[in-house]
């Protein structure tokens, strides 16, 4: 597993379904990795979770890695929410 800091800046993206136009939608920008993981796991609809991607300055995390981070102790406790983030379209 990657060594990651829950406070590092992160952006949540969703990829388009396999059929049709290939697009990437920015869902949340300017938040922490911890908030990004929580957003993917708690706020994205099930059909979009598996197509989610979290970008940091040094990593691109796909859904399997996001799920694994969500189970780590440093990602489980309460956090400050998405107040400093820009939330994109649903």
Describe this structure in words.
The chain has 90 residues and is an alpha+beta fold. It has one domain (9-78). Helices cover 30% and strands 28% of the residues. It is built from four helices and five strands. It has helices spanning 33-42, 46-49, 63-71, 73-76; strands at 9-15, 24-32, 52-55, 60-62, 86-87. The protein has a five-stranded antiparallel sheet. Strand 3 (52-55) and strand 4 form a beta hairpin. The chain is globular and about 40 Å long. The model has no long low-confidence stretch (mean pLDDT 85).
Give the tags.
90 residues; alpha+beta; five-stranded antiparallel sheet; 30% helix
Task: Report the sheet with the most strands, covering strand number, pairing sense and barrel closure.
Answer: 5 strands, antiparallel
> What spatial order of strands do you see in the largest sheet?
4-3-1-2-5
Report the average pLDDT across residues: 85
pLDDT below 50 for ≥5 consecutive residues: which ranges?
none
Helix-residue proportion:
25-40%
When the domains are counted, the total is 1
What is the helix/strand order? EEHHEEHHE
The class by helix and strand makeup works out as alpha+beta
Shape by Cα distribution: globular
Tally the helices: 4
Proportion in β-strands: 25-35%
**CA-CA gap between termini:** 30 Å
Report the count of strand segments: 5
Cα-atom radius of gyration: 12 Å
């Amino acid at each position: 597993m990657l060594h990651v800091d829950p406070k590092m800046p992160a952006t949540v993206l969703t990829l388009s379904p396999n059929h049709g136009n290939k697009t990437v939608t920015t869902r949340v920008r300017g938040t922490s990795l911890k908030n990004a993981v929580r957003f993917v796991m708690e706020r994205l609809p099930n059909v979009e979770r598996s197509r989610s991607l979290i970008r940091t300055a040094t990593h691109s995390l796909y859904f399997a890695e996001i799920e694994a981070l969500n189970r780590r102790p440093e990602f489980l406790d309460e956090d400050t929410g998405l107040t400093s983030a820009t939330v994109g379209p649903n």
